[in-house]
Structure formats: C-alpha cells, structure tokens
Amino acid sequence: MPPQLKTLLPFFAALILFFLIIRHFLIPESFGELGHYRANSIEEIGDLPIHYAGKSVCIDCHDIEAEQQRNDSHASLSCEICHGPGAKHANDYEVKLIKSGTRKDCGRCHNLHSARKIEAVVQVNIQEHHTERENCIDCHNPHAVWELKE
Amino acid sequence: MGAKRINKSRRRFLKKSVVAGGTILATSGLKPFSVLIFAAKEPEDTLNPWYGIGIDIEKCIGCGMCAKSCKLENDVPQEPFYFRSWVEQYTIKNDGTIKVESPNGGIDGFSQSVPDNEIFKTFFVPKMCNQCAKSPCTQVCPVGATYESPEGIALVDEEYCIGCRYCIQACPYGCRYLHPEKKTVDKCTLCYHRITKGLKPACMETCPTGARIYGDLNDKDGELSLFLKKHNCQILKPHLNTGSKLYYNELSAEVR
Ligand code: SF4
Ligand code: SF4
What we know:
The structure holds 2 protein chains of 2 kinds.
Chain A: H1 3-26, H2 40-46, H3 55-61, H4 63-70, H5 79-83, H6 87-91, H7 103-110, E1 140-141, E2 144-148
Antiparallel strand pairs in A: 1-2
Chain B: H1 2-30, H2 34-37, E1 51-56, H3 65-73, E2 85-93, E3 98-101, E4 119-128, H4 136-140, E5 146-148, E6 154-156, H5 166-170, E7 176-178, E8 185-187, H6 192-195, H7 202-205, E9 212-216, H8 223-230, E10 233-234, E11 246-249
Parallel strand pairs in B: 1-11
Antiparallel strand pairs in B: 1-9, 2-3, 2-4, 5-6, 7-8, 10-11
C-alpha cells in the first residue's frame, strides 16, 4: 500500500465515522419505521383536540330538543350546524353556545338559489318572506319547524 | 497428532463465529439505513382501512357549512382565506360561458350572482384534498415531512416541515396552503384526529343534507363502496393519474 494512502486512510475513516455519528443524531426517533417519515407524527396528529362534539353527545343532555327534532323535518341535522362547535360546552356548561335563527343564518340553506335543487331543501325568498317579523325563529321553532309561534 | 486436529477444528469454529458475529453486527449497523431502502407501497393487507371520500353533488345545497366547520375544527385562520375544504359554484350560462365562483370559499354561504334567465345549468362542487393514492404532493417533499399514512391519508408532519412550499406547487387540486402563523404546510387530514376517535370528519358532521361521506374502500359492503356501486362516480383530473380517492356523483365535465 502506498504510504500516502496509509496516512489518509485513518483520516477518511474518522470522516465517515463523524458523518455517521452526526447522522445518528439528526434523524429523529421513529423516522423510517413505516416509511420515509416520522411514524410518531401519525399519533401526534391523531391526538389533536376535537372541537365538534357530535350529535350523540348533545342529545345526552338536551333530550327535549332532541325529541322535538326527531319528529320534524330537521331530524337528520346535527345540532352543531346551528349551534357551532360544542366540545368545550360539553365539558363545561358555563361555555355558552350560539343560537342562530336570523334570516341570514337560515338563508344559508333556505334562501332561494338556482343552484339548490328544489327537492333537496325547502326554499323561500328570505328578503320577502313575512317581512313584518325580523328573524325566522320569531315564527318557526328551529327544532320543530312547522310548529309556528303566534 | 490429536491435539493438532483439535486445534484446527477449534480454529475453524472460532473463524465461523467471528464471521457470524460480524454479519450480525454489520446488519444491525445498517438498520438506520432502512430509510434509504424504503420504497412507497400500497398496503396488501386489506384488513386495514383504506379511506376514500364520496361527495354527492345532487344533494349539495351550497350552504358552506362544511367549509366553515372545517376552519373551526382545524384552527385554520378565518382570514386570510386559506382552506382545507371549500365550496365552488359552477354556472354554465346560456351563451356557453362558464362562471366559477367561491366567495370566501363559501364559509358564509352563497347568494345568487347570475340572474335566472341567463343560466343554463348551475351546481355546487365542494372540494377538499383527494387523499390521492399516488399523491404528487408527498413525492416531492425533500425532507419526508408529508406522507401517506397506512390508511391512505396524506398527512403533514408539522415538526418536520421546513415550509419550502414544494408540495403546494405539486398538488394539482390546490389543496395545500402555508399556514401563516406556523409557517408550515397545512392540509385536509380527513379530520384524522376525529376519525381515529370514532367521530365523523367535521365537514360531514355538519353537512345538513348528507352530501358527503367517507369510508373504507376495502370494506366492500361499506357505505362508500355502496355509494360507488350505486352512482356513476367520477374523480377530478383522472388524466393526471394521481390515484384520487375523492369520488363525485354527477360530476360535470366542466369541473376542473
Ligand atoms: S389532493 Fe393534493 S394535497 Fe391531497 S393527496 Fe392529492 S396531491 Fe396531495
Ligand atoms: S355542508 Fe353539505 S350541503 Fe352544505 S355546502 Fe357542504 S357539502 Fe354542500
């Protein structure tokens, strides 16, 4: 073996060793377990907190509204469509939820719109429909829509 | 004589054990390199879920609750208008021109902008990540921060993302954005944190008409498989061979 190589060999060996050590510390734990990514991040994403509790949680407490809704045309709707995300409220009753029922709120689904299939949803012109009252819920009970108030 | 023979066989034994020991040591040393050897694959194990999505355009009423609840569930900034999930309205006018609109992504609903007498046909198209099986977005990531989970959901590792925006460019459906505060890329996870807890994704929980479903494509009797069997479903941009798993019923050819 030429003497130059002999002197360089330990140098290269040290370099490669150095690279391997650095590499060992740079690659995070669980990287490559399932693929070219950090396998632990799947769990981290799965552990994120939820905001929408789901209808089954709501009707555990609010049985009167649930009963009303079950027998009316809004039966299939989730409570949180109108009341907003309720996971915090489910854990702490002090956290209040919104009550929607203005012309704008109900109009999201029920305002006359040519792209809405007429068989998919009941539609009215929310600007013209019973203008003597301000909000939809002044007449309609959103849990039992055809129970009209006086 | 005898002592010599014993010595020989002992030497052979020692040699063999050294080779065996060396091989074990070398392979254990190679283990960290399994990352380099890995190649992407679809799961052969059909017992695990392989998620897909179905959207019924016939049922969608364009209320935009899906887009709104998505923002609230996943802490997507309300403004500027970035989306994981949004709704578009397509209007094909009598003169043949096509108008596509999506005011604030639909989070506040839609009001009619084209008068009835000019409209030939109009419909809503809710959009979200297609959870592609051959996702271009995950292929381009230089650091391995975005990937397809074993359930077939394209996820982003926030810790590892360097915010280079390469994947935003690569997604042909515009489903990714750079989170303005975190400075990492964010996208639809099919509410991974909800479906693993047995809840529906937020957009499907709040869709009043049941226009959106998700399900396991491996489950041949599942809700999604039935949806695919019953309807004439299409995916977006099939020519790009992204392996999209978002199936639309009644998708018009005008939709891009
Ligand atoms: S739709 Fe875009 S972000 Fe989603 S998996 Fe496909 S390429 Fe990736
Ligand atoms: S929530 Fe359902 S009906 Fe409303 S816009 Fe979204 S998909 Fe359409």
